[in-house]
Structures are given as C-alpha cells and as structure tokens.
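Checklist before submission:
- one chain only
- standard amino acids only
- sequence pasted in full

Submission:
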Amino acid sequence: MQKFYAMLLSKFDPSSTVSRQHARIRLDKTFFSIEDLESRNKTRLGELTLTPHKPEVLQNGDVVSFGSVKASFRLLGKSELPVSWSQS
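Returned file contents:
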C-alpha cells in the first residue's frame, strides 16, 4: 500500500525555485522514498542530485533540497504520527 502527501513550500521559497510539482515523497509499507518529478531546479538528497523518476530511500535525518529550500526529513514516534499515517 502506498500513500502520498502534498506539501506547499512556496512560503519558504521567496526566489521561486520550487516547481509546482517538484518531487514526490512516498510511504510504502516499510519505508519512505523520494523522487524528483523533472523539476526545473532539481531535488537533492544530501549531496546527491536525484535522477528524475528514480526513487531513493529516505532515512531519518536526511537533508532534502527542493531547489533552494532545504528540509530535514524526520520520522516521529508512531504515537506522534498523524492518524492518516497509521499503518493499521
């Protein structure tokens, strides 16, 4: 089972480097992955520039860059996850 989540980064991106459909973070049964969606300003996982449509596994604490916007990927304890993320 796969789940998809959308997040808007435009308020963190005054120079407009994040594409409207920039990247996808996917939750599979046991792991998260990220893939670039042919974004103009690229998606990076740490120092690795992602190849479009080639998912890479995300680990807790990874730094992800969407254009010039950097974010840390954090996994919360199961009791802290939103209800829609429940794996029951």
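Reviewer check: The chain has no helices and eight strands.
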